[in-house]
Amino acid sequence: MQQLIALDNAHVWHPYSAIGADLPIFPVISANGVYLKLTDGRELIDGMSSWWSAIHGYNHPLMNAALQAQIEKMSHVMFGGLTHEPAVTLATRLIELTPAPLQTVFFSDSGSVAVEVAMKMAIQYWHAKGHPAKQRFLTLRNGYHGDTFGAMSVCDPVTGMHSLFSDVLTQQYFVDAPTCRFGEMSGDDEIAPLKQQLMQHGANIAAIILEPIVQATGGMNFYAADYLRRVRALCDEFGLLLICDEIATGFARTGKMFACEHAAISPDIICVGKALTGGYLTLAATLTTVEISAMISNGEPGLFMHGPTFMANPLACSAALASLKLLTESDWSSNISRIESGLKGGLAPCRELASVADVRVLGGIGVVELMQPVDMKTIQPLFVEQGVWVRPFGKLVYLMPPYLISDHDLAALTAAVVKVVESS
Q: According to a count of CB atoms within 10 Å of the terminal CB, is the N or C end of the chain lower?
């Protein structure tokens, strides 16, 4: 194990890390259900669903069977000029699940690319309609939409992770994130900055892009559904598109199948990923309306300008179909309510701690916001010592457990958070 860690430290870059950073790292030898087994034999309750993707846990027999059946047929085939049943069936299923009138589907490899695709769709749409100046985007501060260049440009330019690249990124329009909490109403003063930007720059704006209800990596901010309804109304009033980035929130995480449903609105373009395949393989999708896809297809140059090599990979599509079947054939709404109750009760003691600024829970998301940023070098091993896998960032200790977590394991997970936060 020590040799593995030494080689890893010397040669392998991990997300948002430096070579030779000497941060603690924990080799995993297997995973089953909600448990990650380390090479030293310890088992950890996974509180992160592998960055929110492994909603059915690990080594699920039905997921495994779907992939085994597909690999006997074909693991991959190019999507240019060819098609296959898993992709077509998955597109149909996504259309059934997402809010109407989203009717056309573009597959890609990751969430960041799905956002790139959405932004390119919006720009091409307006170009085809004879408005080539509409190439900018309006978005919320504290947002996060991915690590590729287009996606980076709509991440928070100051507090986000990509300020180093600000001079080479397309300059977009930003307004402060809403302060109205989930469950509250949104006042006129909350929406006024958005309207002001549209009045000033509407001729150059292709779309508003945001994470509906939950700003995830940008700060785990849960904002009012009424605010989202007002954003939709502004888009209609000013005649521009609304892009909902549901990569983190989609597939029941917030208590609705998609977070935009809390506001009873439909976007013009939606991005999904992460939990789409149950964490088995990387896959994302961007859905839009027939009106938008037809305008792009009939305009210059007569096609949509994007095409990933591994687009609609059959194995990934089969994993997604199995994951969606598991989700939709379960009583997922009641299950998420169960997890929400467990998170609320289990994390409640943190409210009494002087080091804690806030505790908030929505659906299968539990957040403990600290007064000060965490020290990853010290806090990560503390969670492992408690038998749980939790990966904080900034001031946030948060949980997004797999949906099959038992009440017993959920209680152990939240108790570990309370103990570590109390002692650190």
A: N
Asked if residue 36 has pLDDT above 90, the reply is: yes
pTM: 0.97
In 3D space, the residue among 352, 397, 390, 347 whose CA is nearest the CA of residue 372 turns out to be 397
- Confidence tier at 163 by pLDDT (50, 70, 90): confident
Note whether 368 and 219 are within 8 A (CB): no
Q: Which two tokens stand for residue 166?
A: 């600000």
Tell me which of 163 and 141 has the higher pLDDT: 141
Is 281 in the same domain as 416?
Answer: no
The residues that are catalytic are: 16, 144, 245, 274
Q: What is the pLDDT of residue 286?
A: 98
The single-letter code of the amino acid at 43 is: E
- What CATH number is given to the structural domain containing 404? 3.90.1150.10
Spatial separation of the C-alpha atoms in residues 266 and 255, rounded to whole Å: 17
Cα–Cα dist 48/404, whole Å: 13
Give the count of beta carbons closer than 10 Å to the beta carbon of residue 138: 27
User: What is the rounded average pLDDT for all residues in the chain?
Assistant: 96
Residues 307 and 349 in one domain: no
Q: Average the pLDDT over 391-407 and give the result.
A: 97
In a domain, 310, yes or no: yes
> Is residue 325 classed exposed, middle or buried when 0-12, 13-18 and 19+ CB atoms within 10 A define those classes?
middle
Those residues whose C-beta lies under 8 Å from the C-beta of residue 348, and which sit 6 or more positions away, are 359
Contacts by 187-191, CB closer than 8 A, 24 or more apart: 190/224, 190/227, 190/230, 191/227, 191/230, 191/231, 191/234
